[in-house]
Design brief:
The complex is a heterodimer. Chain A is mostly beta strands. Chain A contains 1 helix and 15 strands, in the order βββββββββββββββα. In chain A, the strands form 2 sheets. In chain A, strands 2, 4, 6, 8, 9, 11, 12, 14 and 15 form a 9-stranded parallel beta sheet that branches. A 6-stranded parallel beta sheet of chain A has the order 1-3-5-7-10-13, with no helix packed on it. In chain B, the strands form 3 sheets. In chain B, strands 6-5-16-13-8-9 form a 6-stranded antiparallel beta sheet. In chain B, helix 1 runs parallel beside helix 5. Classes of the chains: A mainly beta, B alpha+beta. At the A-B interface, strand 1 and strand 2 of A face strand 9, strand 11 and strand 12 of B.
């Protein structure tokens, strides 16, 4: 059974919140949760969770641990763990994730690559699990 | 030794009974000190300098948020502890520091929980709560990116103590005045029926603010107005202040 428990979807209080009435140009880096409901041009990188809201317009390379995308993204999205793309999302760029959920109605134009256990284990310097 | 400074407006008769209650409570708790009532002839800076020369280690301001903001620039660079006694329950600074109004504040002073909290700086001017600019053409520059509000009637503020969402009694965002950071907050100007305007919140240590419109100014703690462009930085742990156990950080 697939559990719908993407931490990026349920961010209530983030350290960085870009509201709908704001435009950010440049590199947005954080070690904590980010919520984007406005406009971002550049790069977004967080070691934690990222939520891109319905009205958000992002022209950026996106890197996060978990991500929930409901807005427009023009750029590549790289998510270490869970990526959820909602029905309202429009993505023009490649997506990379370990776990992916795409709702019916989402618009995706780009390549999709799944991170496997070998790649994840290499990043964590752990031996990958083997099945008998 | 304690120095109690009563702000000008407390000369009004309606405050007399409250001030008697405060003074009696201070005597009961054994923390009575020198009392100075400000007036046209006595200003806060002179009173504090005088007090420090005589060995005062704790300066207590009796008044409201304006009173508390006025003393910040006077004592920020001095080795004294600040205490506050708010005369009503409308003080945002007191709420965040966990100080109840009137004689209940005296108990907090007696408990003497002292914390070093951050201050913000606009140029060389300190602020304890926030610096605000209301202008359409404001641009804010952080180390790696620029931020500009879209549309009209946005309020850009640089907060230290706490962020209160318009129309709400408390904040959803837990701001910490000891985290060595300030918060950039951009909100739409409060419209009559729109109490839930979405906010932009970005923590920072140093920021440059500029304004294309020539007549704009930055209002610092509701006390002073400064002209942009300006650099706003955090002064970590700059102010030693008495806080209550019910503080919001």
């Amino acid at each position: 059974m697939f559990k719908d428990d993407n931490p990026a979807k349920e961010i209530k209080v983030a350290e960085t919140i870009i509201g709908p009435s704001v435009k950010v140009e440049g590199d947005l880096n954080s070690d904590h949760d980010i919520i984007v409901d406005g406009e971002v041009i550049g790069n977004i990188k967080t070691k934690n969770n990222l939520r891109i809201g319905k009205g958000a317009r992002v022209k950026a390379e996106v890197v996060a641990k978990n991500a929930y995308v409901a807005g427009q993204v023009n750029g590549n999205i790289t998510v270490k763990e869970k990526l959820q793309v909602t029905a309202e999302a429009q993505i023009k760029g490649n997506i990379t994730a370990s776990l992916l959920v795409v709702e019916m109605g989402a618009k995706l134009n780009g390549q999709c690559k799944m991170l496997d256990e070998v790649t994840l284990a290499n990043e964590k310097n752990l031996p990958p699990k083997t099945t008998k | 030794m304690y120095l109690y400074i009563y702000d000008n407006f407390l000369t009004d008769k309606k405050y007399q009974s409250s001030l008697y209650r405060i003074e009696n409570r201070l005597v009961d708790l054994g923390i009575k000190g020198r009392v100075v009532r400000l007036n046209i002839l006595k200003n806060m800076a002179e009173v504090v300098e005088d007090g420090i020369r005589q060995g005062v280690k704790t300066v207590v301001v009796v008044g409201n948020d304006l009173s508390f903001s006025k003393i910040i620039n006077i004592i920020a660079d001095k080795n004294v502890t600040l205490g506050i006694i708010p005369v009503d329950n409308k003080s945002k600074i007191a709420k965040i520091l966990g100080i109840p109004p009137l004689d209940a504040a005296c108990e907090i002073l007696a408990q003497r929980i002292v914390k070093k909290i951050d201050l913000g700086m606009v140029g060389n001017y300190y602020f304890i709560d926030s610096a605000t600019i209301t202008n359409e053409e404001t641009t804010v520059k952080l180390k790696d990116y620029n931020i500009s509000p879209i549309g009209k009637n946005n309020i850009v503020s640089f907060n230290n103590l706490g962020i209160f969402t318009p129309g709400k009694a408390t904040s959803d965002y837990k701001s910490d005045p000891t985290d060595e950071k300030l918060e950039l907050v951009i909100s739409a100007e409060i419209k009559k029926f729109d109490k839930n305007s979405p906010l932009t919140i970005i923590p920072f240590e140093k920021i440059k603010v500029s304004c294309a419109e020539p007549g704009a100014f930055i209002v610092v703690d509701q006390v002073t107005k400064l002209k942009p462009p300006a650099t706003i930085t955090v002064a970590p742990g700059k102010l030693q202040t008495i806080v209550g156990s019910k503080r919001l950080f």
